[in-house]
Every structure is written in structure tokens, then in C-alpha cells.
Amino acid sequence: SRPHSLAGDMEDDDQIHMYDPDCGCEEDDDEYEDEEFEQEQYIHEGNTGQDAWADTEETTKMWRIITSGEVKDLETFLEERPTRATIRSSDGRGPMFWAFEYRRHDMVQTLTRYGVGHNDKDTLGMTPVDLLDSQN
After folding, report:
1. 53 with 89: CB under 8 angstroms?
2. Which of 35, 38, 43, 100 could form a disulfide with 128 if both were Cys (CB 3.0 to 4.6 A apart)?
3. What is the pLDDT of residues 34-64, one digit of tens each?
């Protein structure tokens, strides 16, 4: 079992839910390393600013999935933990940037369904759409 996601069907009080022992979720210490748990908790609490940008195993795996073009792998990776859709590497780029950069339209659509926008900016002030313009 995994922690509740930030799904729209949750009550406001449940928006920042992390392993409430009364909720029926099972905590699996082997599944979540301390560092990953802290990062997820930070994101669950609504922090999506530059402080959360880091080069991690998850950002690397996400980049590999995007560059591979395997939409099914992306969907599986996001289903396991929906907050992965908004992870960002240390340069401020994340899945939507990479999907635009590698022209993976189907992945852009998948990420959009997970609530990822096209207007986020990286450390250089570029948006995912700007990457299309820079490749022409």
C-alpha cells in the first residue's frame, strides 16, 4: 500500500496526509528511504519551489523513461506515486521539460493529465515550450 495522493476527491483536511495510523494505510519502511520520504513529505505539504529541485534517483529514472519514449513505463511510474509528475532536477527542469525537449507528445498529454503545466520555469527562466523554439 502507498500513502494517499493529492487526488481531487480528497477532503481539504486530507490534503497533507502522511501515514496517519488510523487511516488504514500500511507503512512499509523498506519501500521508502528516509530521504525519499522527506522529499515526498515536503512536496505533499505544498512546497514546489526551488528548494525541492534536486538531482535524485527518481529524476534520473524519470529522464530515462521520457527519453525512451515508453509511455506505458511513464504511466506505471506515475501510478506508483503521482507526485513524481512534478519532480524537478537541480536545473529546474522536470518531466514536462524533457517531454517537450524530446518531442514526446503522448508523454506531454500524460503529464498534463497529472496536472503538470507548460509554464513552469527552470533556473534559466525557460519554460518547456521554450525548448521547442530553441531547437528550430
Report:
1. yes
2. 100
3. 544 444 444 444 444 445 799 999 999 999 9
Round to whole Å and give the CA distance between 108 and 46. Answer: 23
Helices 105-113 + 71-80 axis angle, to 10: 20
Cell of 82: 503521482
Take residue 78 and report the three cell numbers written for it.
506515475
Rounded CA separation 108/122 (Å): 17
The set of cell numbers assigned to 97 is 521539460
Record the pTM: 0.62
Ranges of H-type helices in 1-136: 34-44, 57-68, 71-80, 95-101, 105-113, 128-134
Q: Which residue has the cell 518547456?
A: 128
